[in-house]
């Protein structure tokens, strides 16, 4: 798995949630996740930010669990992909 795989999943997630109304907290988590992934792309060899990236992704998964089951599935796939990448 690669960063490109994660980017593709983020794109799928964005497409999925574009048609739905999200609460402010969820939107902030999503923005934070995108920012952290972009940071990670620039420093893929570094361990900096891994915990924060995973924490943010897990919070988003929880946020989506009740009201956005398709988005939750995509987040779970993102978490799995990050895990396979060693992040």
Structure commentary:
It is a single chain. The protein has one domain (3-84). α2 runs antiparallel to α3 (50-67) and α3 (50-67) runs antiparallel to α4 (69-84). The chain has helices at residues 3-18, 24-42, 50-67, 69-84. It has four helices and no strands. The chain is an all-alpha fold. The model has no long low-confidence stretch (mean pLDDT 76).
Question: What is the element layout, followed by pairings?
Answer:
Blueprint: H1 3-18, H2 24-42, H3 50-67, H4 69-84
Helix pairs in contact: 1-4, 2-3, 3-4
Gap from first CA to last CA: 11 Å
Count of helical regions: 4
Beta-strand segment tally: 0
| Low-confidence runs | none
Helical percentage: over 70%
Largest sheet: none
Integer tally of domains: 1
Structural class: mainly alpha
Shape: globular
Q: How much strand?
A: under 5%
Q: What is the string of SSEs from the N terminus onward?
A: HHHH
- Overall mean pLDDT stands at 76
Rounded to an integer in angstroms, the radius of gyration calculated over CA atoms is 12 Å
